[in-house]
């Protein structure tokens, strides 16, 4: 018997019904979806909540749902602009993001996105993107030729650092190098400026001192926005450098996927922030030794 997924249970039995009677999230908020690998890897031994793979079949079904619900999938930069301006165009806006630069984005996700005329934003860890295929987390990553091909087709690219480290464990000198060097490499390969960054691993939102210093580094490096692993949708007044996203994987059935889009999953930010707060208190002493 499969384990009960409590986030799904509470979302569909409590959060979503409350939303239907006016107690849910603001419909004007922007959903930013967070994908990683589009593959058939079942990630044995990993609970549904923490899985990062979405099967090609499920991904295609989710994109079909977005299309049927009238969503327009735009780049991160465009999605934020529309949200700040209060514009929904002819439908509802969604931003589809992918982390890690896996090659299955090119082979599995890209054709589906083209089918529906959807844009997307892919964040690249540049140490694993080369002229020949390289591997990250035992998966093939895209080549620069594939990146350029998709850029010409309208896909937006951003930085996901150079080496994909746990930034919170590094000193700020090394963090600066990770965010500046990755940006420079992508700009050199694409011949244009890039303004988007994705924070790898859990974002330490409870450590305000670290977040403030980190955001300052992003601004100095010339970034305009940054997404994190914080859960939720984005409002027009939200900080563009600590943007929330909605994690998606193969375990998200249609009911849960639609509930996430509608804001019924935003409640997960509360327990997530509480857990991070405890971890921050425990790890703050270790962080202090890095600076």
TrEMBL record:
Domain NodB homology positions: 92-291
Subcellular location: Secreted
GO biological process: carbohydrate metabolic process
Domain of life assignment: Bacteria
Keywords: Signal
UniProt KW Magnesium keyword: no
CC per GO annotation: extracellular region
SUPFAM superfamilies to which the protein is assigned, alphabetical: Glycoside hydrolase/deacetylase (SSF88713)
Any one GO molecular function term: hydrolase activity, acting on carbon-nitrogen (but not peptide) bonds
Name of the protein this chain belongs to: Polysaccharide deacetylase
């Amino acid at each position: 018997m499969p384990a009960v997924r409590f986030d799904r249970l509470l979302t569909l039995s409590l959060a979503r019904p409350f939303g239907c009677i006016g107690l849910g999230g603001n419909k004007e908020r922007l959903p930013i979806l967070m994908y990683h690998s589009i593959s058939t890897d079942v990630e044995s031994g990993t609970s549904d909540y923490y899985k990062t793979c979405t099967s090609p079949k499920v991904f295609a079904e989710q994109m079909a749902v977005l299309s049927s619900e009238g969503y327009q999938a735009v780049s991160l930069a465009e999605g934020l602009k529309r949200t700040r301006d209060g514009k929904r165009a002819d439908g509802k806006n969604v931003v589809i993001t992918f982390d890690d630069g896996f090659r299955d984005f090119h082979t599995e996700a890209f054709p589906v996105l083209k089918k529906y005329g959807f844009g997307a934003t892919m964040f690249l860890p540049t140490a694993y993107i080369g002229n020949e295929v390289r591997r990250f987390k035992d998966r093939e990553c895209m080549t620069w030729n594939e990146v350029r091909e998709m850029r010409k087709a309208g896909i937006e690219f951003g930085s996901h650092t150079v080496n994909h480290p746990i930034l919170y464990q590094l000193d700020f000198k090394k963090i600066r190098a990770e965010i500046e060097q990755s940006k420079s490499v992508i700009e050199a390969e694409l011949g244009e400026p890039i303004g988007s960054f994705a924070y790898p691993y859990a974002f330490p939102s409870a450590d305000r001192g670290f977040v403030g210093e980190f955001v300052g580094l992003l601004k100095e490096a010339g970034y305009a926005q940054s997404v994190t692993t914080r859960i939720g949708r984005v409002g027009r007044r939200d900080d563009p450098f600590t943007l929330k996203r909605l994690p998606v994987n193969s375990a998200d059935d249609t009911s849960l996927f639609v509930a996430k889009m509608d804001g019924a999953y935003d409640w997960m930010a509360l327990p997530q922030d509480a857990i991070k707060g405890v971890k921050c208190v425990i790890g703050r002493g270790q962080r202090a030794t890095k600076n």
